Amino acid sequence: MGVEDKNRLVGQLAASQRQRLLRYLRRRVRNAADIPDIIQEVFLRFLRVPHHDTIRTPEAYIFTIARHVAQQHRLASAPADDFVDLEKVVGDLCSVADGDPVLQVTADQCLEQLEEALNDMPAKVQATFLMYRRDGLPLEQICERLGISRPMAKKYLAKAFVQFRKRLKEAE
Amino acid sequence: MDKRMGFNHQISEEAAEWLIEFRTGDIDAAGRREFDSWVRASPEHLRAFIEMAALWSESGAVDAQRRLEIEAILWRSQDEQQVIALSPEAVRGKSRAPARTQQRTRSTRTSEAQRGGNRRTRSISRVTRFATAASVLAVTVGTALILRSSLFGPSTYHTGVGEQRSFRLPDGSRVVLDSRSRLRVDFTRANRTVELLQGQGLFYVVKNPLRPFLVHVGGAMVRDVGTQFDVNRRGNGAVITVVEGQVSVTTFQSTFQSRPAVEYGRVSKELPLGRPVDISIGTAARMQPILLSAGEQLDVAPRELPPRPVHVDANAVTAWTHGQLVLESATLPQVAEAFDRYSARKLVARDEGTPELRLSGVFATNPAFLIRYLHERPDIMIRETDSEIDIVRSPRADQ
Predict the structure, then answer these.
(1) Does residue B395 have a cis peptide bond before it, meaning omega lies within 30 degrees of 0?
(2) B-chain residues within 8 Å CB-CB of A35?
(3) Of B259, B253, B250, whose CA–CA distance to B305 is shortest?
(4) Do B143 and B149 form a contact (C-beta atoms < 8 A)?
(5) What is the pLDDT of residue B349?
(6) How far is B103 from B92, CA to CA, in rounded Å?
(7) Which three-class secondary structure state does DSSP give residue B63?
(8) pLDDT tier for residue A118 given thresholds of 50, 70 and 90
(9) For residues A113 and A91, what is the distance between their CA atoms, to the nearest angstrom?
(10) Which residues are CB-neighbours of B329 under 8 A, at least 6 positions away?
């Protein structure tokens, strides 16, 4: 397996773990205060990995580490309860039918929060976000349509996510 | 990136910016190094970034049903900007105008691109502008809102005064809502049920015989499997016009007209798959379904005998989608009723003359044009208040 393949694999793994991790974390947030511990653990482990290793795909590294930590934490703290099939979670979050009502409610609530937050954003931020994330349009096309520069479009996207996070923090 | 250890908002912003760098693929080797040291700087950075990345995933499901239309959002952004530039009077006038010109959207957008340079200046006044815009919008223009967008519950689409919008429903069907209309959409596995709570809608239904499309409106239910039709809610009644294909209309007896139409909606939801017509609702006597074909219209009014289909010009009925109202020998109160939907202030009309005035012709849906037209008639008096426009035709002989 070449380096490229390996990287891609790690990337995919990370992608598939992200939702799990967040939902896992968010569920914990409601129940216990052990998110800081998990984050701390991920952080420490990340620090242990030398720069030259992580720099290539720092993002992927983070999620690989986080996945390990979350999994260990879960194994340690709970019996094998509702650890759903990863394949099912990946992909369309909305078509959830993974049989876990708690996760389902959390996901629905989360989505509702996000949609409310979106509704409060300036029109151009909304439009940029929807075209990029929902419609999957390339950034160039969005810039052209809105008559804005690429840095501006990225700024709008970042703005949307800041608002999302803010909204979820307020809801917690 | 500099090491500003600011408050949470700052970290959020940085995390979001990094996320976007990665997602757009714009990040280069130097960027990766910077990110690496940024994330090593604090567990708070890491936490923010992980949460951002998770939000990225979750946000993929935002508006998955594509209810929000980019055009409409951009249109609204026009309003946000133009509302400020205009005087209050002009705003009031403008907001009643039908929202329809695509050219305007395009030309404004171009000019905005040219103005890109002074973006900073404009953003300073954003707060003031937005506040003003919000208050004006709330009263007059009104944005189509999605009240609830959870996948499993019903959603309500609505339009403000002077606003027309096209919505794509979860099954791919489309509905154009006229000014000041409300539509409740409640899709289940077995049925596609909508309820027109107010106003008028033109429906383009995607064929699916196994999952009928049901429109509940003022004492009637329209059942359809794939066609094009217009439903105009009038008080407790409704006028249904078929543009293409065929629908069946079930009406309910007058004893039921005072009940909210929601009742019907509830009933149909419990129906088994494929048998939506087989309804019994408590004491309500259901009439035989009436079959309507293209070019036919049914006026379902409460307290009346079973309605009969009549032939109409479907183009005239749906002219509102082009911002036009086609009136044929309409009395003054009928004219006021027809225009009321497009007016921020209530339109009331009384005709004391004999013989009564009858109006025919094609009118723009903007009530300002109607008022101007009526003003020119010496026998008509128009009294305007903040909440009402009162039109009275004096008993003198017609001019």
Answers:
(1) no
(2) 47
(3) B253
(4) no
(5) 92
(6) 22
(7) coil
(8) very high
(9) 20
(10) B358, B359, B360
Answer whether B225's CB lies under 8 Å from B208's CB: yes
CA distance B331 to B322: 23
Residues A66, B40: C-beta atoms closer than 8 Å: no
Lookup: tokens for B322: 């082009």
Of B46, B53, B151, the CB nearest to A42: B46
Cα dihedral across residues B134, B135, B141, B147: positive or negative: positive
For residues B298 and B319, what is the distance between their CA atoms, to the nearest angstrom? 18
pLDDT per residue as tens digits for the range B336-392: 888 888 888 889 999 988 888 888 877 778 888 788 878 888 888 899 888 889 999
DSSP codes joined into one string, chain A:
--HHHHHHHHHHHHHHHHHHHHHHHHHHHHH-S-HHHHHHHHHHHHHHS-HHHHTTSHHHHHHHHHHHHHHHHHHHHS-S-S---HHHHSS-STT--SS-HHHHHHHHHHHHHHHHHHHTS-HHHHHHHIIIIIS---HHHHHHHHT--HHHHHHHHHHHHHHHHHHHHHH-
Q: Do A46 and B51 touch (CB under 8 A)?
A: no
- List the single residue in B22, B62, B113 with the smallest CB-CB distance to A114: B62
Higher pLDDT, B170 or B146: B170
Contact A58, B39 (CB under 8 A): yes
Minimum-distance CB partner of B58 among A59, A93, A157: A93
Write out the two tokens for B214: 């049901």
**CB within 8 Å of B84: residues ≥ 6 apart:** B125, B129, B132, B133
C-alpha–C-alpha distance, residues A123 and B128, integer Å: 16
Element spanning B370, H or E: helix B367-375
Q: Which residues of B214-252 are buried (b: 16+ CB within 10 A; e: fewer)?
A: bbbbbbbbbbbbbbbbbbbbbebbbbbbbbebebbbbbb
Instruction: Say how many residues make up chain A.
Output: 172
ipTM of the complex in this document: 0.70
Can you name the residues that pair with B175 across neighbouring β-strands? B167, B203
Phi then psi dihedrals of residue B65, to 5 deg:
-90, 5
Tokens at residue B68, please? 């929000």
Interface of B with A in 31-90 (CB under 8 A): 32-33, 35-36, 39-40, 43, 46-64, 66, 68, 70, 73-74, 76-77, 80
What's the CA gap between B270 and B276, in Å, rounded?
9
* Strand B174-177 relative to strand B155-158, pairing: unpaired
Closest CA to B192 of B228, B230, B145, B224: B224
